[in-house]
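Please decode residue identities from the backbone states below.
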């Protein structure tokens, strides 16, 4: 469902920000790590721009989709808090608030520390995260998508006391055998938001020295996806 429903949602909206913060800073031919690559939506764009790309994600199912869509690319299933790669990268990119799925500040520090460990000296790491404003704007309404073989319902919830959000997913898929039966699936995806200052401090604790942050709307991300989202650029 993720691979099908959100293939063309995030990237077009984020492209002005990524052009300015990442693509303009990293020449083609560089070795790039797509951290939390999912099913390869952004990986595909990195390849098209001439980078040598490795993708890492904790979901074996999403990595399977990525390998099918982009044969020949190196994809690895790993928990990014325990990232272990022999390769050194010129740059790392992590998009679509992936690091909000790290539910503790210690865990976020560990991701940043591991990322620094696979970056060459002076290497760039760009990532985006949702702050509280992004979650507080969620009205908890169901968003429904329907086609001939799929019915998908998605809604978000946010608990201000714990600073945690949850995306509830329900989808129905028509059986391929022609018997007109449908299968129902459910999932809940959790995220946590952190103050901007905590994210900057976590990057500094991980050993990054050149740390910049900017609101997504200030670098051209004007859709609803940009509200409450910040991009962080660290070296």
């Amino acid at each position: 469902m993720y691979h099908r429903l959100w293939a063309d949602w995030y990237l077009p909206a984020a492209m002005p920000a990524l052009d300015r913060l990442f693509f303009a800073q990293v020449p083609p031919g560089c070795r790039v790590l797509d951290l939390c690559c999912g099913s390869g939506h952004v990986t595909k764009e990195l390849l098209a721009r001439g980078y040598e790309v490795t993708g890492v994600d904790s979901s074996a199912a999403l990595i399977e989709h990525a390998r099918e869509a982009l044969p020949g690319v190196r994809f690895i299933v790993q928990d990014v808090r325990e990232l272990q790669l022999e390769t050194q990268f010129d740059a790392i990119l992590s998009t679509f608030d992936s690091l909000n799925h790290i539910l503790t500040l210690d865990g976020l520090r560990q991701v940043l520390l591991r990322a620094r460990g696979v970056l060459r000296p002076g290497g760039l790491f760009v990532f985006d995260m949702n702050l509280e404003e992004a979650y507080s704007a969620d009205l908890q309404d169901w968003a429904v998508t329907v086609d001939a073989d799929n019915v998908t319902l998605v809604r978000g919830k946010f608990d201000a006391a714990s600073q945690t959000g949850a995306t509830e997913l329900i989808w129905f898929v028509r059986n391929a055998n022609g018997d007109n039966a449908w299968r129902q699936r459910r999932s809940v995806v959790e995220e946590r938001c952190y103050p901007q200052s905590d994210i900057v401090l976590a990057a500094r604790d991980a050993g990054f020295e050149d740390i910049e942050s900017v609101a997504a709307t200030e670098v051209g991300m004007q859709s609803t996806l940009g509200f409450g989202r910040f991009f962080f650029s660290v070296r």
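Observation: The longest strand covers residues 119-130.
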